[in-house]
């Protein structure tokens, strides 16, 4: 039984070695080589799916670049190939490109309005990804861990970078040309040198992003939403350099781990926003613009300038930092405080009523005075009529007494 066991183990070892040899034999290196106009290039150009299949069945690692001819239309699927050291260039009429077995890639450069799908399901390492002029692009690379740079522009439909951990240079996602909203979720991203994400965003998720930006003032973290307001939540962000810019439709800002930074903080919101950053202790320049309704920087101590320019009403007295230990320039401005329109209407109505009533009363008083004066004049005229031309009373009311009047002429008439 012991000898049988030893023989079985030996046989299995031989099978294992043979299997390894088979793998080594199957793993073949290929070198891209094309001659164009008498010049040799390290590139293999393909013009049909049949060419791809013939090439890939005997090659697992390609040293050089891959290109696709303009007459290659539809979908391109490159099976069996696991490593490409160079650049894959897609500038043709392809609508879909798939590398189902690829593990590492030097770079992908695509500029085509027809391209709809890029599928790299097993890819773990890539230097550069650059896709421009996309139309409803669905880009899937769920297992890539690290990249030097990723740049996607155009109309983006869906993205899948589920395990992306680090982008050493630029992470640029711009879907602003698409009216339809799209979601950006980078659940594993922890570090990126320069991040810019913009477009009609339905949601944004960067739960683990801790470091963004480099020492350059041009780098940093920029988020811009051209659609309906969303929450810009960066719960793990603790280190940012350059500029932290949050722009567009913002429902709320959440930066609980950001305590001290040398970066500028710029917020420009198109929707009413209460900026609540009670944990921030120090920053360089802070600028809040747009529809800022209020601000809370209760722990802020260090800054070079703090500026609020709101296009709606804001209480500057409670929104400016009050806990600072180092003097920095502060300024705040906003729209006029809104008034109560209903109360104003009531006041105007009461004023008009009182004014009209007072006017009528004044007219009545004037008429009454005029009529009273008229009566007094009438009475005075009647009294004068009862007197003789000598100013003597003709007779008393008590009795009739005869009075002899001297026969004298009346005095001469005079105006005076």
Largest sheet: 21 strands, parallel
Order of helices and strands: HEEEEHEEEEEEEEEEEEEEEEEEEEHEH
Mean of all residue-level pLDDT scores: 80
- The coarse silhouette is elongated
Can you give the helix content as a percent range? 10-25%
Our count of helices gives 4
Task: Give the N-terminus to C-terminus distance in angstroms.
Answer: 170 Å
Any low-confidence stretches, pLDDT <50, length ≥5?
3-25, 343-358, 380-405
Structural class: alpha/beta
Over all CA atoms, what is the radius of gyration?
Answer: 47 Å
Protein name: GPI-anchored cell wall organization protein Ecm33
Organism: Aspergillus heteromorphus CBS 117.55
Signal peptide: 1-27
Transmembrane segments: 346-370
Task: Explain this structure.
This protein has helices at 2-26, 49-56, 316-319, 341-385; strands spanning 29-31, 34-36, 39-41, 43-46, 61-63, 65-68, 73-77, 83-90, 93-98, 104-111, 117-119, 125-140, 146-160, 166-175, 182-185, 191-199, 201-205, 211-212, 220-233, 239-240, 243-254, 264-276, 285-296, 305-310, 329-333. The longest helix is centred in the last third of the chain and has 45 residues, at 341-385. The chain is 20% helix and 42% strand. It has a 21-stranded parallel beta sheet that branches. A hairpin with a 2-residue loop joins strand 2 and strand 3. It has a domain at 72-333.
């Amino acid at each position: 039984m012991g000898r049988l066991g030893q023989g079985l183990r030996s046989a299995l070892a031989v099978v294992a070695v043979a299997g390894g040899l088979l793998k080594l034999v199957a793993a073949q290196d290929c070198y891209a080589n094309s001659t164009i106009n008498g010049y040799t290039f390290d590139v293999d150009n393909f013009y049909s799916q049949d060419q791809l299949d013939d090439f890939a069945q005997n090659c697992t690692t390609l040293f050089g670049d891959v290109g696709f001819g303009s007459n290659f239309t539809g979908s391109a699927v490159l099976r069996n190939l696991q490593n490409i050291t160079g650049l894959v260039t897609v500038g043709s009429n392809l609508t879909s490109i798939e590398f189902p077995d690829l593990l590492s890639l030097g770079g992908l450069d695509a500029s085509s309005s027809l391209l709809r799908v890029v599928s790299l399901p097993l890819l773990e390492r890539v230097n550069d990804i650059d896709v421009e002029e996309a139309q409803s692009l669905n880009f899937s690379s769920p297992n890539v861990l690290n990249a030097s740079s990723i740049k996607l522009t155009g109309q983006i439909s869906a993205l899948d970078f589920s395990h992306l951990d680090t982008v050493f240079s630029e992470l640029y996602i711009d879907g602003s040309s698409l009216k339809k909203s799209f979601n950006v979720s980078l659940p594993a991203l922890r570090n990126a040198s320069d991040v810019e994400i913009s477009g009609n965003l339905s949601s944004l998720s960067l739960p683990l992003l801790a470091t963004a930006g480099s020492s350059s003032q041009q780098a940093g973290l920029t988020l811009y939403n051209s659609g309906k307001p969303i929450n810009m939540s960066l719960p793990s962000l603790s280190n940012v350099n350059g500029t932290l810019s949050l722009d567009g439709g913002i429902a709320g800002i959440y930066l609980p781990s950001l305590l001290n930074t040398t970066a500028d903080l710029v917020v420009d919101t198109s929707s009413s926003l209460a900026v609540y950053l009670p944990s921030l202790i120090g920053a360089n320049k802070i600028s809040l613009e747009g529809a800022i309704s209020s601000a809370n920087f209760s722990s802020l101590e260090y800054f070079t300038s703090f500026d609020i320019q709101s296009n709606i009403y804001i209480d500057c007295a409670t929104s400016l930092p009050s806990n600072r230990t180092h003097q920095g320039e502060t300024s705040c401005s906003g729209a006029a405080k809104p008034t109560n329109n209903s109360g104003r209407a009531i006041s105007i109505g009461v004023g008009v009523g009182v004014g009209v009533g007072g006017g009528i009363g004044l007219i009545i008083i004037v008429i009454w005075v005029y009529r009273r004066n008229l009566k007094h004049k009438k009475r005075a005229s009647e009294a004068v009529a009862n007197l003789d031309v000598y100013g003597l009373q003709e007779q008393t009311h008590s009795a009739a007494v005869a009075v002899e009047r001297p026969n004298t002429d009346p005095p001469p008439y005079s105006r005076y």
